[in-house]
Design brief:
By secondary structure, the chain is α/β, with parallel strands linked by helices. The chain contains 17 helices and 17 strands. The protein has a 7-stranded mixed beta sheet. The chain has a 5-stranded parallel beta sheet with strand order 10-11-12-13-14, with helices on one face. Bound molecules: zinc ion (ZN).
Length: about 450
């Protein structure tokens, strides 16, 4: 009881003295992605890269600030997460990969989840520089090198040939403080695959990736697999007679026949089982479409080509050549795959699987541009049947949820990280409005997307 008067005094002081903050953004409408709602005429107070308060714009006078920004009636939303990107191409492409980082901010992407590659030490350096405000770029979560079988599809991967190798592989990832584990499906045996998942689970590391088609997805999920990248790996659990189809059509030759035998009832059972184990799926529909159309779309006038290093654009040739070799058969098959994958997203989402928006942008992935491509993926997800708020959730809410970081990201509220974008138009009404982003606030700095894009344009 004695302490009461003192407490009262402190409260009284804090009401009468304006709060001192680093940045005050006034006159914004705040997008609540989770509830699909807009709070009109608000202000956001930021200090040390954290949101200190969100309040009625009319209360702005209660805050003292080092800097003030008139939001001018724009819509404020958490920065976008691209949950599947790539930094890779070896030592010779480190600087070119680094040059892509501001592109993410120029399109409102404040966090990326890297799909693993061969330049981990460089990525580690960028993470520190970005955190210290020395480099303009998104927060990066990286798995370090991928884990693959005896004949890895990508350089720099860790080979797991037998079950025993899983332990060594996971120890080495732990040694470099990998943010999560990414598995690839070059030629991992199912047992080695399960062993990697088990070792990751034992270390409390999230694990996602491709899956050997001969492995069983439900078994993997029960062992601790947290998600899959791309939709191929759900096909074996959604087709009738999948085992026979796979025996007759080894490897990826099974993809089209599996799609032809897709059974909605079986699929819904599988999706419900996966949802029970808090499963994540990154459909990567936009790159699917881009690759399917490689032979029939002329990209030579893409305005975004100007932002890319010529050396990165050179890496595009690998997929362009392979598409050209496949000709019409390649195009038809890829288009068929695209349709089938698009049709799987809404039932997965409705079953409770966490869908993740990921673009797969980066070297080798032809014409899937860093930053810009996540907006295309969000449009694809709406085309697949998600509402605009649901599509936004796959980026802004499910991205942090995958890493158990909901307390730091996902909404504009006091205590959360101040990764904020300002948009001219409301994306809850039309998903394409994410493209109207004009300001990105990251690590205490605010970037005009127009200026960033101009700088990127003049550099290359
Ligand atoms: Zn990828």
């Amino acid at each position: 009881m004695k302490k009461l008067p003192l407490l009262f005094l402190v409260l009284a002081l804090s009401c009468s003295t304006p709060n001192q903050v680093d940045l005050l953004i006034t006159n914004v409408h705040i997008i609540d992605v989770e509830n699909g709602e807009v709070s009109k005429n608000q202000m956001i107070a930021i200090s040390d890269n954290r949101i200190i308060a969100v309040d009625e714009a009319s209360n702005s006078a209660n805050y003292m600030y080092k800097e003030i920004m008139d939001g001018d009636g724009t819509f404020a939303m958490p920065g976008l997460w691209d949950n599947h990107v790539h930094f890779r191409g070896g030592e010779n492409l480190i600087e070119q990969n680094k040059a892509m980082l501001p592109m993410f901010l120029a399109f409102g992407v404040t966090t990326v989840r890297d799909g693993g590659g061969d330049i981990t030490p460089a990525i580690r350096d960028w993470q520190t520089e970005i955190e210290n405000g020395e480099l303009a770029g998104p927060t990066i979560f990286t798995p370090g090198p991928k884990i693959d079988g005896s004949n890895p599809a990508w350089d720099g991967s860790i080979k797991v040939l037998a079950v025993e190798d899983a332990l060594t592989a996971l120890e080495s990832l732990e040694g470099i403080f990998a943010d999560f584990v990414k598995i690839y499906d070059g030629n991992l045996s199912p047992d080695a695959y399960y062993a990697v998942i088990t070792e990751a689970e034992a270390r409390g590391l999230k694990v996602t990736g491709h899956m050997p088609l001969s492995a069983d997805l439900i078994t993997a999920a029960n062992l601790g697999l947290d998600g899959i990248e791309h939709l191929y790996y759900a096909l074996t659990e959604t087709a009738l007679n999948a085992d026979e189809i796979q025996q007759e059509n080894p490897g990826y030759a099974a993809i089209t026949p599996l799609m032809d035998n897709y059974n909605a009832e079986l699929a819904n059972q599988t999706y419900a089982q996966l949802a029970e184990s808090q499963f994540y799926v990154t459909p990567t529909l936009h790159i699917g479409r881009t690759l399917a159309e490689l032979n029939i779309t002329d990209h030579s006038n893409d305005s975004l080509l100007a932002y890319m290093s010529p050396e990165i654009v050179d890496t595009y040739q690998r997929r362009i050549r392979s598409a050209a070799r496949g000709g019409e058969i390649y195009t038809n098959q890829r288009q068929r795959w695209g349709e089938a994958f698009r049709a799987m997203v809404k039932p997965m989402h409705d079953a409770g699987i966490h869908i993740l928006a990921g673009s797969d942008c980066g070297p080798f992935n032809s014409y899937v541009y860093p930053g810009a491509s996540i907006h295309e993926e969000l449009e694809e997800l709406v085309n697949a049947g998600l509402s605009p708020p649901e599509a936004l959730s796959t980026s802004i809410i499910n991205g942090p949820r995958f890493f158990d970081l909901e307390d730091k990201y996902g909404s504009l509220e006091a205590g959360k990280v101040a990764d904020i974008i300002l948009l001219k138009e409301n994306p809850l009404e039309n998903i394409s409005h994410t493209k109207s982003v004009i300001i990105t606030i990251k690590n205490g700095t605010y970037y005009s997307t127009k200026n960033l894009r101009q700088q990127l344009n003049s550099k290359n």
